[in-house]
Design a protein that fits this description.
The chain is α/β, with parallel strands linked by helices and about 350 residues long. About 40% of the residues lie in helices and about 20% in strands. The protein has an 8-stranded mixed beta sheet, with helices on both faces. The chain has a 4-stranded parallel beta sheet with strand order 7-6-8-9, with helices on both faces. Strands 10-14-15 form a 3-stranded antiparallel beta sheet. Helix 5 (about 155-165) links the parallel strand 6 (about 145-150) and strand 7 (about 175-180). Helix 1 (about 20-40) packs parallel to helix 10, helix 2 packs parallel to helix 3 and helix 6 (about 185-195) packs across helix 7 (about 210-220). The longest helix is centred in the first third of the chain and has 20 residues, at about 20-40.
């Protein structure tokens, strides 16, 4: 009789259905699953296989918090994943309350927790870090009168504040346009009236972001206007499917190095095969999450308190460089400081190709 070796269970929280950004969620899950497969093919973590227990958050904070309770009851050793910042905040708060380690893959909101905690660590750069780099790109490209078209949310409001605080002392003027009150046509009129040279979209995908891009591209008064989307909407294939060449030349933030090393290149090939399309940086974040957790389990075991104490002592070779955690000023969780940050866009001559416009 063959005795089955018990697995280490990892709870994976990802948005797989609307209103969540399901496409990003599927990329994140692909990275998580690919890395688990690679670890298990190499005899697992400390001789035991990894097992993902996946729950769909659907961008719902309460649903995510309930999933944390369920996964804790199922005996997971740690939580991984999540893309939406507001949902990740809910997960982090509940994980901290339960003493359950959570390695956040993709959410960037600075205030991921209301208080400092050892139970939460994060791979994605804090929003204040990445979005300041984006603001520097706008200034370097000559833009001083910048409009922000935003939907109401903690995440978008935080992004607006970061941009304004960074731009104002450097001669930049930020104009806020409330998408609750303005149609896409009215946004175009406001851009003309305010003499904006750049529009930053802080809005959901596909709508209203796609509708706004279509309206601006059709308006001859705005032919020279730069459209930007720092949250990364243009990276995923559905952006190009919906907008075609109109979706090119929209700069966004991407957390990849200019060139992947040998490990990153191997993972990219495997992710492309799994997804049937080019992997986004979110897929690499998923893969790196499992890489880190595997190193934690191998070196510190499964005790939740020991895992929480391990973050500052871990070094893992990720797909995008060596990963180490530290305490960043103003950030209440253990933070990789910092993953590579780029501003990129889709090349108008070949929208399937990305151009690196600026690196931070």
């Amino acid at each position: 009789m063959v005795t089955q070796i018990p697995s280490y269970k990892i709870g994976a929280l990802v948005p797989l259905t609307r209103p969540g950004w399901a496409e990003a969620g599927h990329h994140l899950l692909a990275g998580l699953e690919l890395a688990v497969g690679a670890v298990n093919e190499a005899d697992g973590a400390a001789g035991r296989p990894l097992e993902l227990v996946v729950r769909d958050t659907a961008a719902d904070p309460q649903r995510a918090a309930d999933a944390v309770d369920e996964l804790a009851g199922l005996g997971v050793v740690a939580l991984a994943g999540e893309f939406h910042s507001v949902v990740a905040r809910s997960v982090a708060a509940r994980a901290d309350a339960l003493g359950l380690p959570f390695l956040c893959s993709s959410a960037v909101l600075d205030a991921l927790t209301d208080r400092p905690t050892d139970y939460v660590a994060r791979l994605a750069p804090a929003q204040s870090h990445g979005w300041r780099i984006y603001a520097d790109f706008l200034l370097g490209a000559g833009h001083r009168r910048i409009a922000v078209a935003a939907e109401p949310s903690v995440y978008w409001a935080s992004g607006t504040r970061i941009l304004r605080d960074h731009l104002a002392p450097r001669g930049g003027d930020l104009v806020e346009l409330d998408l609750r009150a303005l149609t896409p046509s009215a946004v175009c009129d406001a851009l003309v009236d305010r003499r904006a040279t750049a529009l930053v979209l802080l809005a959901g995908h596909p709508d209203p972001a796609v509708s706004l891009v279509e309206s601006v591209r059709r308006d001859p008064r705005l032919a020279e206007l730069l459209i930007g989307a720092p949250a990364g909407q243009p990276e995923l294939a559905s952006w190009l499917t919906r907008l075609g060449k109109g979706g090119a030349a929209v700069p966004f933030l991407r957390y990849l190095p200019e060139r992947l090393g040998p490990q990153g290149a191997r993972v990219e090939t495997a992710l492309r095969e799994r997804l049937g399309e080019a992997p986004s940086f979110v897929a690499f974040e998923g893969y790196d999450t499992i890489t880190v957790l595997t190193e934690v389990l191998r070196s510190h075991g499964t005790d939740r308190a020991r895992i929480a104490a391990s973050w500052p002592h871990i070094t893992a070779e990720g797909t995008r460089g060596p990963i180490r955690f530290s305490r960043a000023p103003g950030i209440g969780v253990w933070q990789w400081t910092w993953p590579p940050v780029q501003v990129v866009d889709r090349d108008p001559a070949d929208p399937d190709r990305f151009r690196v416009l600026h690196a931070g």
